[in-house]
Amino acid sequence: MDKYKVSLTRLSNNAHSNQIVADIMAKDVKHKYFAKDCIDDSYIDYSELAEIYLIFSYIYVIEYDDNKVGILSFNNDSSIEIYVDPEYQHMGIGSSALRLFENIAKEEFEKEFIKAEIRKDDIISSKLLNSAGYEKTGEEREIPVNQHYITAIKYKRQINNSK
Fold first, then answer.
1. Residue 13: pLDDT above 50?
2. Which domain holds residue 92?
3. Domains of the chain: total
4. What is the pTM of this model?
5. Is residue 87 in some structural domain?
6. CA 68/CA 150 separation, integer angstroms
7. Is residue 79, in this structure, part of any structural domain at all?
8. Backbone φ/ψ region at 30: left (φ over 0), alpha (ψ -120 to 50), beta
């Protein structure tokens, strides 16, 4: 991990950005959610999903060793979502991206905290958030996914103690 630098680049809403987001989301979402539950994801249009993200969120591509390996989305309610290509997980890339983004959230968006919501049984994301200092809020909700429900839990981290 020391050999290469992780960086974040903000994407604009265009067709090229849409394709980047769709490709990364498809890999990570399939890996985390659908393969585990044997749920058919053929009904998901990842390009359309990416377009929605680009309209309603600030999207940053996570780059590592000159490869686009993930995305981090951030919306106005201070919530983040992070997707890292499964081939690049467990390398500290997600942790580095979170640290970089926390500085952006403080400086550019003047945020005092960041929230995240993950699937309750998503051990990888849970470890990532815990190691980065995020705490469970105790809030849970059921999310319908293709005639099934998944339980999501919420996390929060204070990032600006100056106020």
1. yes
2. 6-158
3. 1
4. 0.80
5. yes
6. 29
7. yes
8. alpha
Residues 65-112 pLDDT 10s:
989 998 898 988 899 989 888 889 889 999 999 999 999 999 999 999
Residue 1: inside a domain, yes or no?
no
The 3 state secondary structure assigned to 61-72 is EEEECCEEEEEE
Question: Do the domain assignments include residue 65?
Answer: yes
Better pLDDT: 64 or 45 = 64
Q: Is the distance from CB of 93 to CB of 112 less than 8 angstroms?
A: no
Structure tokens at 94: 């997600």
Order of all β-strands in the sheet with 135-145: 6-10, 58-64, 67-74, 79-84, 113-119, 148-158, 135-145
User: CATH code at 132?
Assistant: 3.40.630.30
Please, is 100 exposed, middle or buried when counting C-beta atoms within 10 Å of its C-beta (0-12, 13-18, 19+)? middle
Place of tokens 């467990």: 90
- Average pLDDT taken over every residue of the chain: 83
